[in-house]
User: What shape does this take?
Amino acid sequence: MSPAVKPDHHETSLAEARRFARVDEEGHVYALAPATGQPVSAASAVPEASAAAPEADGAVPGASAAAPEADGAAPEAVAEGTEAAATEPGEPETTVQPPAAETYVGQFSGASADEALHYFTRKFDELYNRALLLRARAAAGADSAKALHESLGHIRKELTAGTWVGDVAALSELLKEISREIDQRAAVEAQEAKVVLAEHLAVREQIVAEVELLADADPSTQHWKSAQARMNELFEAWKAEQKKPPRLTKSQEDPYWKRFRAARNLFEKNRRAFFATRDKEHGDVKAAKEALIAEAEQLKDSDDYGATTKAYHRLMDDWKALGRGARKTDDAQWARFRAAQDVFFGNRDKVNAETDAEYAENLTVKLALLEEFEALMPIENPEAIREKHQALLNRWDAAGRVPRADMKSVESRLKRVQDAFRDAEQTHWRKTDPETLARQNSMLTQLDEAIAELEAALAAAQVSGDDKRISEAKEALDARRSWRDMLK
Assistant: This one.
């Protein structure tokens, strides 16, 4: 907006007034035609309403603005509080014929010529100053071009409808200048409105695009709660945009609204279909879980702890495979299912605790036996310790079960001793097996013969000095000697 412009002030002096009008001896005021012969006033007719006297001093009488009669007489207006200036009743009416090329303005009775001129020039100055104020408002951008044009039209209408004493031509030219300035302002506003309209359409497009994106999302993966909240926000944003100026025309807004409405309807259709399908699935899950709960409750008091534990594991796997149902229903069902398991496992843990207390003494015995077992290692001659090893195993079995928490550790220690004993037996057997010994002896004999032949070949090669034969004989001899060492 341009900075405020202080309007000029127009005031018609008496000297100027005398150039534009004359006053006769009876107070009738006539606007003089300009040198071109054109009327000074924009009006060709005499005003119909009487002009009131100024209110500042209260002593200046009102003046008639009535047009002259057809025969050229100008009616008089008499101010209140003055002596009668009109003819007495019954007397012939006095008329004054205005000179040619003059326009009758009005009468200001009981006042001097200067006072009459001042009265009518003051009205003209008021209109002129209103025009100056309008130009200042136009320059400052205080009002829209439309409002400025309306104000300009009122001033033009008043100028045309009234008769004045003043430079009417100058005021008419000023109004033309103001009109051009307002037209320029209107062109700027039109361009600004075009930019704002484009921004409004861009916002509409953005809103519609997001609504369509929500509508086109896969219903099975859509987060419906947040999506519904966002859809409501977009609808409120649409309504807020409708209230912002400038308002879009129906042809501008309809394409966007039709897309918005179609996407929103599709969104609602998908949402209803999704929840209808989900409600059915939740119903099926609820029924299946009720069957699992019934079986779990039936098993809760079982004392067959091994088989029942496996049954509860199967029920848990089936429960997980069903997935989640409706939150409120599913939580309540899980609480019932879990309660049945807690009863069973609570009973089982209680029995196990009692059993473990009984097995604590057995653990002490087996820990002592493990020390005796481990004292046998390393086992080099299994035959020498076989009887002692077997006796320890018999005492181990007679000791009974140990607490569940210690079972793995003690069994692991025993397994290490048994594995060492078994390995020692296998090694001893390989060394003492007659068949194995016979095969070894046969192979040793063959290797000894081969070694003797290779030694003779090496000696011959050395005598001949053949380096290649010497190298081959050494390699073969070293290999046979290595095999014989392994067999031994």
Remarks:
- The beta strands are 21-23, 28-32, 102-107.
